[in-house]
Design goal:
about 220 residues; alpha+beta; SH3 type barrels; Lysozyme; 2 domains; 3-stranded antiparallel sheet; 8 helices; disordered N terminus; disordered C terminus
Length: about 220
């Protein structure tokens, strides 16, 4: 009932515009309507009115009607990016090769936003909850997950002075393990992971190179 009343009021207020009383000294007064009462004129506004000498009014001017309200503008929702697009966006933000971030994402989650590992790693970049918290990210939000994962990879590359295998091993097994073994730790899972990501990246770079672009070369 309240909704119908509101619509009705909007329609009435836009359909019945007011007017302006043009005054002899050059001004004008707004009114909903007017009535003559002998030597005086009543100018009605809302539920009240004012009286003014008829001789002070030289004419009336209709108020232009406001356009009728036909709908409410809606803000367009932001586009939903694919996992690959999220990877490219994060790679560009942190100065990483796009193919590298895509390769990490492929190895981590297979581009599945809701992937959860047996150890509790979450999302596209498989962030552990503690790592995500340290990076100030919500691991369950795909955009934040990918942004934080790429940022973490950049931090690891800086920590190991650009040594990709060290950075990848630290992403998989943790920096403590890499520091302990002074390189890729002898964990079968980590060794497979590093070889898979590095191999996938090399293939991606080779494919892009054959297409005529000039990507960053993978390390030997």
């Amino acid at each position: 009932m309240h909704f119908r009343t509101l619509i009705f009021v909007l329609t009435v207020s836009s359909a019945f515009a007011g007017e302006y009383a043009l005054l002899a000294h050059g001004g004008r007064l707004h009114a909903d309507r007017h009535e003559h009462d002998g030597a005086k004129v009543r100018l009605y506004n809302g539920g009240g009115y004012i009286e003014i000498e008829s001789s002070q009014i030289v004419g009336y001017e209709a108020e232009e009607s406001a356009p009728a309200v036909t709908g409410i503008a809606q803000t367009a929702a932001p586009p939903v990016l694919s996992p690959q697009q999220l990877a490219d966006t994060a790679a560009d933000r942190y100065g990483l090769p796009r193919t590298l971030v895509r390769s990490v994402m492929s190895a981590e989650s297979g581009f599945q936003p809701h992937a959860v590992s047996p150890k509790g790693a979450l999302g596209l970049m498989q962030l552990m909850p503690a790592t995500a918290q340290a990076l100030g990210a919500n691991a369950s939000d795909s955009a934040q997950n990918v942004d934080a994962g790429a940022r973490y990879l950049r931090q690891l590359l800086e920590k190991y002075h650009g040594a990709l295998y060290h950075a990848l091993a630290a992403y998989n097994a943790g920096p403590a393990a890499v520091d302990k073994y002074k390189g890729v730790p002898p964990f079968p899972e980590t060794v497979r992971y590093v070889n898979r990501v590095a191999g996938d990246w090399k293939q991606s770079v080779a494919a892009v190179s054959s297409a005529g672009s000039d990507p960053a070369s993978p390390p030997e």
